[in-house]
């Protein structure tokens, strides 16, 4: 993994950590020095990841609905970010194959 030598200015940074109280309400924490807005940080680059590209019309509306239904019917796993200071993310990931159906 490589890093850009000069700190990069960001409009918003993801929190450094998160926690939840007894009722499940999330609390986000940022590094005391920077906070979430207008911060500068060295940017870590993961050379193994390709740049996402937009492909308009890759799926029809019916295919999109079927994909959403398939994901909603499956049990997922907690999503997370593997590297860097923004290692917290609240999401669920579902993996399925080409032959899977809802």
Explain this structure to me?
With 102 residues, the chain is of the alpha+beta class. It contains 1 helix and 8 strands. A two-stranded antiparallel sheet has the order 1-6. Strand 3 and strand 4 (26-29) form a beta hairpin. The longest helix has 13 residues, at 61-73. It starts with a strand and ends in a 9-residue tail after the last strand. The model has no long low-confidence stretch (mean pLDDT 76).
Using brief descriptors, characterize the structure shown.
102 residues, alpha+beta, two-stranded antiparallel sheet, two-stranded antiparallel ribbon, 1 helix, 8 strands, extended
Q: How many strand elements?
A: 8
With strands numbered from the N-terminus, the spatial order across the biggest sheet is 1-6
> What fraction strand?
15-25%
How do the SSEs run, as a string of H and E? EEEEEEHEE
User: Judging from the principal axes of the Cα atoms, what is the shape?
Assistant: extended
Mean pLDDT: 76
Gyration radius (Cα, Å) is 18 Å
Largest sheet entry: 2 strands, antiparallel
- List unreliable stretches of 5+ residues: none
Gist?
The protein is α+β, with helices and mostly antiparallel strands and 102 residues long. Helices cover 13% and strands 20% of the residues.
């Amino acid at each position: 993994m490589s890093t850009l030598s000069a700190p990069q200015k960001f409009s918003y940074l993801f929190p450094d950590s998160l926690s939840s109280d007894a009722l499940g309400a999330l609390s986000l924490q940022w590094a005391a020095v920077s906070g979430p807005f207008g911060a500068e940080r060295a940017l870590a680059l993961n050379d193994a990841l390709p740049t996402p590209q937009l492909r308009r019309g890759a799926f029809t509306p019916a295919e999109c609905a079927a994909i959403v239904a398939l994901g909603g019917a499956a049990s997922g796993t907690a999503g997370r970010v593997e590297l860097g200071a923004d290692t917290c993310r609240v999401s669920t990931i579902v993996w399925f194959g080409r032959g899977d159906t809802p």
